[in-house]
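Hello forum,

I keep getting stuck at the same step: I have a sequence, I want structure tokens, and every attempt I make locally crashes halfway through. Rather than fight my setup again tonight, could one of you with a working pipeline run this one for me? It's a single chain of 238 residues.
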Amino acid sequence: MLAYIRLEVRRTLRDTGFVIGGVAMPVMMYLLFTNLGENDGAWKTASMVGMAAYGAVGSALNTGGAVAEDRATGWLRQLRVTPMTPREVVTGRALTGAVTVLPAIVAVLAAGGLVNGVRLAAWQWAAITLLLWLGSLPFTLLGLGNGYRLTGPSTGVVNMVCNLGLAVLGGLWFPVALFPHWLRAVSDWTPTLRFAQLGTSVAQGHRPALGAIIVLAFWLLVFGSYAVLSYRRRAGTI
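Reply #2:
Ran it on my machine without issues. Output:
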């Protein structure tokens, strides 16, 4: 499985579309949102974490698009004749996604520190990077589930809708405090809000809230089950 992971990581990092959409776009959006008008340091820090989370979610979901392409080229058919079980195939792809989200996270954090002057302790930079990296796994599994279940064009559309919808509902672009009361109640249960809270808590000098970890763990189980079931369902037709 390690050889499979190395292969998939190299394929993803060589994709120009991934570099532009998954890494460059979140950085440009972050710099745009935080340099229009008068923005204080607190907003630049919060937006940095939110946009790093947004880039991580987009990169994680992108794993599903690669799966849909593999189905079209027959690569998944070849995997069926290997000794790997469905769970191992899904796990391998999920780990690939976990590796490829790092460039987006690091790029946005670097823009915050080097361009916007965000100042944090060394342990905070390291902890935010680590927590956003680990916390992106549920979104990788969601993308995989879409990629195994849907056609190539449908996967791209559904992943885009998931990315934008979860980003807005989770407050990755705008503060949740601006939402109406009913929408804030919905946002509390979204994986993206809790995902970003992992980083914002550390940026404020606190440990991540237990509630954020519990909600993310719940979505990890939901999306993980969805990915495995989607692979098993598709296995008979590829």
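The longest helix spans residues 41-73. If your local run keeps crashing, start a new thread with the error log.
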